[in-house]
Amino acid sequence: MRPSRAGVLRTPPASSPSPLLILFISLLSISTQSFAWRPWPNRNPNGTFNFGDSKKYEGSSEFVHLRYHMGPVLTANITVHPIWYGAWDPPKKRIIRAFIRSISPDGAAPPKPSVAAWWRTVALYTDQTGSNVSRAVRLGAEKNDRLCSHGKRLSRLTVQHVIRSAVSARTRPLPVNPQGGLYLLLTSDDVYVDDFCGQVCGFHYFTFPSIVGYTLPYAWVGNSARACPGVCAWPFAVPAGYGGPRAGAPPNGDLGVDAMISVIGHELAEMASNPLANAWYAGTDPCFPTEIADLCEGIYGTGGGGSYTGQLTVDGRDGAAYNLNGVGGRRFLVQWVWHPELNYCFGPNALD
Ligand SMILES: *[C@@H]1O[C@H](CO)[C@@H](O)[C@H](O)[C@H]1NC(C)=O
Ligand SMILES: *[C@@H]1O[C@H](CO)[C@@H](O)[C@H](O)[C@H]1NC(C)=O
Ligand SMILES: *[C@@H]1O[C@H](CO)[C@@H](O)[C@H](O)[C@H]1NC(C)=O
């Protein structure tokens, strides 16, 4: 959730740790320092990548101690409020809206494996009272900030000011809903947010009453199409020097936005299970928690881990790589999340 160079779970076992465990620990360090996405684990000093180290990261592990820290989870109906910052063409917005609507679709259920089934793993997390994260996720009122009211370079703190502007706008402010509202700041591909590309592709936190007037869970996700597709649009794009294959074509034909979908899923899953950073996370340091999606970065299917995405569906007609179906015949590629009972990363496209 917050960037850090410090890894959690750093203690190696006393005697000859297995390469798998070393990889596992290095993956955890990477996931805490990036907290949305940089899945390839081993970059050599000369810039090449190591392949084939592990395909077992999805496997159950006694080394992951995901714990509940007594804080709230989002048990009330969830409403997602997109804030479109910068220039957002309607086709791009439609992809993202369709993904959010796919979490609890109104009409006929899309074919399996579905986005709704993916969210069911998130809904397994409960609070002190035994209430689950809500399965009801709706697309709520939206706000356009087309002219970039706070500029094209945002810091973590100015992100909160953007949200304040959206909930306090004179015309059509976003509703303030501390119970189930999630505020999703989506920046266009010409906007830079602190640490974008280097360490993060998105993050979530909660707003401070001193800035926004309320404590509201929010997330930011950036469009990396221009700035760093090889970093934040993996696996549709690969970094220079990677040499390995790409996963396939973006399923909705938009590299930057299709890649944002998985990061949005990541952040929604974590906001629902850890909205105030005091509920579900692994690691001992609450400042650098490893949350339910951090644990599964870069894993989209069975066998995923290391630099391997896991088994995906690749459409023979258009080459699109995806793992979930959504409303309106849309397809999405979304990372898995940690399953609290199975104790490993899981998604509805898992092969037995
Ligand atoms: C890069 O480094 C790795 C590990 O140190 C080594 O195995 C590999 O051969 C090197 N590649 C090149 C092109 O030097
Ligand atoms: C919450 O969502 C469920 C399912 O969509 C719906 O039946 C219910 O009326 C909603 N409750 C509130 C308080 O909006
Ligand atoms: C609520 O969470 C519990 C514990 O993970 C799980 O057994 C149960 O199936 C969940 N209920 C729903 C409706 O998801």
Protein model, in words:
There is one protein chain. This protein has 352 residues and is an alpha/beta fold. It has one domain (19-346). The protein is built from 7 helices and 16 strands. The protein has helices at residues 19-34, 90-103, 115-122, 156-168, 209-212, 229-232, 255-273; strands at residues 66-68, 78-85, 137-139, 143-145, 153-154, 181-187, 192-193, 202-206, 217-222, 280-282, 313-314, 321-322, 324-325, 331-332, 337-339, 344-346. The strands form 6 sheets. Strands 2, 3, 4, 6, 8 and 9 form a 6-stranded mixed sheet that branches. A two-stranded antiparallel ribbon has the order 1-10. A hairpin with a 5-residue loop joins strand 13 (324-325) and strand 14 (331-332). The longest helix has 19 residues, at 255-273. The structure holds 2-acetamido-2-deoxy-beta-D-glucopyranose (NAG) (3 copies).
